[in-house]
Amino acid sequence: MLSASSASSLIDGFGTALTPLNLLWAATGVLLGTAIGVLPGIGPAMAVALLLPVTYGLDPTAAFIMFAGIYYGGMFGGSTTSILLNTPGESAAVIAAIEGNPMAKSGRGSQALAAAAVGHFAGGMIGTTLLVVLAPTVADLAVDIGAPDYFAIMVLAFIAVTSVLGSSRVRGFASLLIGLTIGLVGLDQMTGQQRLTFGSLQLSDGIDVVIVAVGLFAIGEALWVAAHLRRGGQGAIPVGRPWLGRHELRRTWKPWLRGPVIGFPFGAIPAGGAEIPTFLSYITEKRLSKNKQEFGKGAIEGVAGPESAASASAAGTLVSMLTLGLPTTAVAAVMLAAFQQYGIQPGPLLFEREPELVWGLIASLFVGMVMLLVLNLPLAPVWSKLLRVPRPYLYAGILFFAAVGAYAVGGEAIDLVILLIIGLIGLMMRRYGLPVLPAIIGVILGPNAEQQLRRALQISDGSVTGLVNTPFAVTVYAIIVVLLAWPWLKRLLPSARRSEGRRERVEDGG
């Protein structure tokens, strides 16, 4: 429960956040974040980094209130392009493309955007409430999690996503292998050896995740559409009605509430930010849904749950940053640099030394969530009208913005060459039925998983038992075994056998 001192501090925080000037900065942050998030490849981390110099003359409280708005707005903007154009603005929005884009293509883009907007609102409000209530407890838990636990979590993410996506596990693992291989490019973090750089100095830093995500999704999708444009015709995709109906609300309210349960803890521990919880939320919704046949074709639960989880994860990220000074995402790292720019060091004493700043920032998260919903729900039909643009012009625009986003990452011409090569890989993956998502996961989590594996083995002097020497790791590996064995276990269950028997009789005409 919320302590009396925390409640009093939060009320004071609302007094700070609700001043006219700070409300203006919050609204500016939400609008800028959404607008920049809509551009493929330019996510909230880059937005906050670009705007750092602009805030030099601002009061620290006003600056961080604006940054918080940019963070949440950027996450929502990234899901907008994922849904409408199959082009994630940032890695946390990758999942939104899987169900949101088929919904948009079938004329339900506005409903997908509305489900995402309400999901962000619900996840953000619940996540920020948990931030206020549980910050000390979650911080204590995060301190106790070691390298074996991190590695186990990442293996769970690898296995889970390759097991539930696509028609074939073999294709899922093949896609994951492609991603892990791309993730190996660059210098070995522990030995400094070059890997898969082919003697190129520009590849020594590795291939940025944004370039891989934009290449596999945006460029691969644009090339695929171009290859089939004459066959498929050039008609505009219908936008559909702008609001959620009763049937859709019945299907989305539970995913909206389940998302924060998954998203918040993963945001608070240093395990990769919003990517893992959005994947796990998607898997959970697919397992629990009564409409499993719709997944992959436009199931609204697959948008609502992950988007709620992503927003709650953003609130969780602030727990470890504010209480430990430990950034768990790129945005948190940039915000940490901003704190240091003002001579403020996040950590256990931050709440005592800078109470006005911290509680003003937390209160502004609640205010920003309301602003995000009020601004973006009415804009859902407007964003959906992007789909009325003729497809040749639309995908030419996607290629342009994807190239701009990729070039903005490092300012190197070679990034555009890499983008095109990865786009061709994305085209081939679509041609041969390989799901794109496991490859993205491999790139995002692969290097970190390798680092945690080697760290765990170093701690245990090379003994494999060092990977399973904590109760948390053992529990996660038990879940992995169940996940891998589930297709066989399902056949042994009496209810499953009876339903299969009934299905066979129906198919036989009985």
Automatic annotation (TrEMBL):
Residues that span the membrane, as ranges: 21-42, 62-85, 112-135, 147-165, 170-187, 207-227, 318-339, 359-380, 392-410, 466-489
Keyword Cell cycle set for record: no
Keywords, alphabetical: Membrane, Transmembrane, Transmembrane helix
Transmembrane helix as UniProt keyword: yes
Top-level lineage group: Bacteria
Recorded coiled-coil stretches: none
DUF112 domain sequence ranges: 23-441
Protein name: Tripartite tricarboxylate transporter permease
